[in-house]
Design goal:
288 residues, alpha+beta, six-stranded antiparallel beta barrel, 7 helices, 8 strands, elongated
């Protein structure tokens, strides 16, 4: 799992746990069904819980839906999560007479003379996870913006330090025009070229290059004039930003693209042909 998906998974956990715990804690006689509460106060508690559950579902949808702007879903979900948990730290100061405790006998953690009610601890943990999730989710696109990439290897992460797209074999290509996604399965060389053991030097793994917010995928026809190769898998030997390719086709495709688009070419030596693609974002993950 790459960092972006790890961040989205953690944030999904925060959203689900926050909604479930809040609903479970309030849906009883201490809060929502407390006979001492005014009916209108109970109405507002129920309204809050239903809004929270609905908001969490919307945030989850924004996180995982295919989108031309995948970063927006992460930002909105993180903002919604932070908006829920930060009031625990200031609402008793903002509105005098309010309390974090539902009853006087609720156990409170005491540390160095300071009191930490249980719900404040939960809010602190979930807010911290929200920050971590957003940082992880932004890491893939933030540490190295896609528009500044010089080769596909920048997408590979640190799991396989010797991995490279150079000399990779294309195993499978799936284009979903309805969802505007591309999944390209590659077998990559990941072995250490300085290793003594030949097995380690020649080690290979399979991973998926995933494009979201597809703008186009265009493939030049292969040159089949040479002798047929026994291995029919396209052999990737070069890649780079589409705008740097001097061919007429590449320049025509690059014109009119938004400046933030990920636009790329992939050159397959055995075909003597290139594929050109553009999308809102690109990620890579290992599958085996």
């Amino acid at each position: 799992m790459n960092r972006s998906k790890l961040g989205k998974s953690i944030l999904s956990f925060v959203l689900v746990v926050g909604a479930a715990v809040s609903t479970a804690v309030d849906w009883n006689t201490t809060h929502l069904f407390n006979p001492a509460w005014h009916p209108h106060a109970r109405f507002h508690d129920a309204l809050f819980l239903l809004l929270l559950d609905g908001m969490s579902l919307v945030a989850l949808w924004l996180l995982w839906r295919p989108s031309k702007e995948p970063d927006i879903g992460l930002k909105v979900a993180a903002i919604l999560s932070a908006a829920l948990w930060t009031p625990f730290f200031y609402i008793t100061t903002l509105i005098p007479g309010t309390s974090l405790l539902a009853a006087e006998d609720v156990p409170v953690l005491q540390v160095a003379g300071m009191s930490f009610p249980p719900n404040l601890i939960v809010a602190g943990v979930l807010y911290s996870l929200t920050i971590i999730a957003y940082w992880l989710g932004r890491e893939a696109g933030g540490a190295w913006p896609l528009t500044r990439m010089q080769n596909l290897d920048h997408l590979l992460g640190a799991d396989e330090p010797h991995a490279s797209f150079h000399d990779a074999s294309l195993l499978e290509l799936r284009i979903n025009y309805a969802m505007r996604t591309v999944s390209a399965v590659f077998e990559l060389s990941v072995g250490n070229p300085d290793a003594v053991d030949a097995t380690e030097r020649e080690r290979r793994r399979v991973g998926v290059l995933e494009l979201a917010g597809l703008i186009f995928w265009a493939q030049e026809p292969p040159d089949l004039r040479g002798p047929a190769e026994p291995d029919h898998r396209p052999w990737l030997t070069g890649d780079g930003p589409l705008r740097e390719v001097p061919t007429e086709t590449a320049q025509r495709l690059a014109r009119g693209l938004p400046p933030e688009a990920w636009a790329w070419y992939l050159y397959f030596s055995d075909w003597n042909a290139a594929a050109y693609c553009a999308a809102a974002g690109a990620e890579f993950r290992w599958v085996r």
